[in-house]
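ok so for the tutorial part 2 we go from a plain amino acid sequence to predicted structure tokens. step 1 is just haveing the sequence, like this:
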Amino acid sequence: MAGSTATTNAQAGDATMPPVVVKKYANRRLYNTEASTYVTLDDLAKMVRNGRDFVVYDAKSGDDITRSVLTQIIVEEESKGGQNLLPTAFLRQLIGYYGDNLQGLVPRYLEFAMASFGRQQDQMRRTMENTMGGMGGIGGMGGLLPFPNMEELGKQNMAMMERAMSLFAPFGRRDDAPADVDALKAEVETLRRELASLKDVRPRS
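step 2 — the prediction. this is what the tokens look like for a chain of 205 residues:
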């Protein structure tokens, strides 16, 4: 449930607050100018999860290096055991787009895909919370029993995203694209049916 809590906190973040200004010095130390204290990449990752926006500037040049710092955070998270979010195949495909004529399209596509994924996850989370709240918790081995099909739906989500990205693969066969699109639509419809079935889950008296 840690992921659910983190996302919920992020959604609750105050979008009206100005971003925190962080300065990066030559010794690679990061300084939070709002809190007047040095911070680590882990601290910045927690800010992201809590919905607090920040920008990072090079202390000497004044250049905006937010993108590179966010990338460093992802590298740090991926290096932690059991925390991997980016499949190897996805990373290889992503690298293949650099310098490709579709490079300009990929960022917009990824933003759209992740926004759609986030909306679906929100719906799944609300369904889970409503169901668990109505049941008053299911006693089990030291806590609540896992929500049915949640892990499987997560796997299907990631598989669908990987499949969608493969449609833009620079070395893929373009004549296969129509069939792939039809298959992707079928996968989306399957996920929708799964979500509908989750909504129908009700506590038994």
